[in-house]
Amino acid sequence: MDQETLRLLIRQKIQNGRLPHDSITRVWSSPSDGETCDACDTILSKEQLLMEGTTLAPGRRPFQFHVRCFQIWDHERRAA
What CATH number did the domain enclosing 27 receive? Predict the structure, then answer.
């Protein structure tokens, strides 16, 4: 997915609440185990680094991102 398409998808997910607008309170990274990225909806390969983060919202599971998707999400949420 090209950069601008990914940026628009993430912006839309922030606007409709599928991705948080507020900051993530805790962030960590680990090798991927085939998780699906919450931003781009594609599977992370085992060779990729997984970025995970939690919010203060009760009952939400941690959000999972590719590194690039996490960076774009962080930029877009700050700009909104």
Answer: 3.30.1740
- Domain hosting 15: range is 3-79
Number of domains composing the chain:
1
pTM value is: 0.92
CB 31 within 8 A of CB 55: no
By the 10 Å C-beta count (0-12 exposed, 13-18 middle, 19+ buried), 74 is classed as middle
Q: What is the pLDDT along the chain (80 residues), one digit of tens a residue?
A: 899 999 999 999 999 999 998 878 899 999 999 999 999 999 999 999 999 999 887 778 899 999 999 999 999 999 97
